[in-house]
Amino acid sequence: MTVVELKDVTREHGQVRALRGVSLEVAAGELVAVMGPSGSGKSTLLNLAGGLDRPTSGSVTIEGRDLAGVKDLAALRRGSVGYVFQDLNLIPSLTAAENVMLPRELDGVRAGRARTEALAVLAEVGAEDTAGRFPEALSGGQRQRVAIARALAGERRLLLADEPTGALDTATGDEILHLLRTRADAGAAVLLVTHEPRYAAWADRVIYLRDGQIAEAGAVRLESAR
Ligand SMILES: Nc1ncnc2c1ncn2[C@@H]1O[C@H](COP(=O)(O)OP(=O)(O)OP(=O)(O)O)[C@@H](O)[C@H]1O
Question: What confidence score (pLDDT) does residue 108 get?
Answer without folding.
Answer: 86
